[in-house]
Amino acid sequence: MMRRSHVLALLWALTALFYALGLAIARYLGLFRRWDAALMGLVWVVLLVGGGEALGRAFDPHTEAAARRRVLNQAFVFFAVAALEATFLAEQHLLSPTAMLLQLMLAVVAVAWGAPPVHLALSGYGEVPLAAALSLLVPALAFALQAGTWHRLLGMVGMPLFAMALAVALAWDFPNYATHLREERRTLLMRLDWRTALHFHNVAWLTGFLLLALDVALGLPWEIAAPCGIAFLAALMQVWMMWRIGQGARPPWKWLRANALLTLALAVYVLAIGFWRL
Q1: Which of 144, 211, 265, 267 could form a Cys-Cys staple with 231, CB 3.0–4.6 A?
Q2: Are 160 and 231 within 8 A, CB to CB?
Q3: Are 137 and 99 in contact (CB under 8 A)?
C-alpha cells in the first residue's frame, strides 16, 4: 500500500493542475488580472487539502491514540494558516461573494472528509464530493479570484473531468479491496461491490470523454478539445485493462493506478494549455 505522504503529494499535484485550469480559463476570457491572488489562492487550496487529509488520518479507526493527537495538531496548523490567508485575501478585497462561497464549500468538504459525524472518507460516498471539489470547485475558485464570478466554461469542462475523477478514485481503491473488506471499511468501491464498480469505472471514463465531445458541439473550441484525444487513448487502455481483470486476468495494480492518474492529469493539462495559449 502506498504511503499516505506519497498519496498527499499526488493529491496536491492534481489539485494544482485543476487550479491551473481555472486560471487558464480566466486568461482565455481575458479576465486574468493578478498573479498575487492566483498564488495566494493556490496556497490556500493546498493548505485545505493538507488539513482535510490530516483530519482523515486522525479519525481513522486504525490510527493509534498516540498518533491521533499529533495528526490533529497538523490538521489544526493547516486550517489555521488557511484561515489567516483567507482573512488576508478578504482584507485586500480579493474575495468576491462568489469566491467566498466557493471557499466555504471547499472548507466544508475538507472538514467533512475527515471529521465526525459526517466523516466522508468512511461514508461510502466520500469519493463523490471529493471528485466534485477537485474538478468543479477548485477551478471555479481560481477563476473567481480573477474574474469575481463564475462562467459556463467551468461547468462544460468540469463535468467531464468529474466523471474521470470518479473513475480514478475507483481505480486507486481496487488494490485495497481485500483489506477494506476485511476491515469493513466503507468506500465507494465497497458500496458498489467489485463487479458493479468495475463496470462503473469503465462507463465513467467513456462518459467523461463523451461529454468532452458534446462540449465541442456546444461551443468549446476544437483546438482546445482535440489534444484530449491523447488522453482518450490512455483511457481506452485503462478500460481494456479493467475489462481483462473482469475476465480473470492477473491485475496489474501499479500500472492501473499510474495510468488512471496520468490519464486524468493529462486531460487536465492539455485543456489548461489549450485555454492558456488560445
Answers
A1: 267
A2: no
A3: no
Alpha-carbon gap, residue 196 to 217, rounded angstroms: 31
Q: Determine if the pTM surpasses 0.70.
A: yes
Q: Which residues of 13-47 are buried (b: 16+ CB within 10 A; e: fewer)?
A: ebbbbbbbbbbbbbbbeeebeeeebbebbbebbbb
Instruction: Give tens-digit pLDDT for 9-55.
Output: 999 999 999 999 999 999 999 999 899 999 999 999 999 999 999 99
Cell, residue 52: 482535510
Residue found under cell 482535510:
52
Q: What 3-state class would DSSP assign to 268?
A: helix
User: 141, 103 in Cβ contact below 8 A?
Assistant: yes
Q: In which residue are the cell numbers 482518450 written?
A: 232
Residue 32's H or E segment, with its range, is none
Cα(85)–Cα(42) distance, integer angstroms? 11
Instruction: At 167, give phi and psi (nearest 5°).
Output: -65, -40
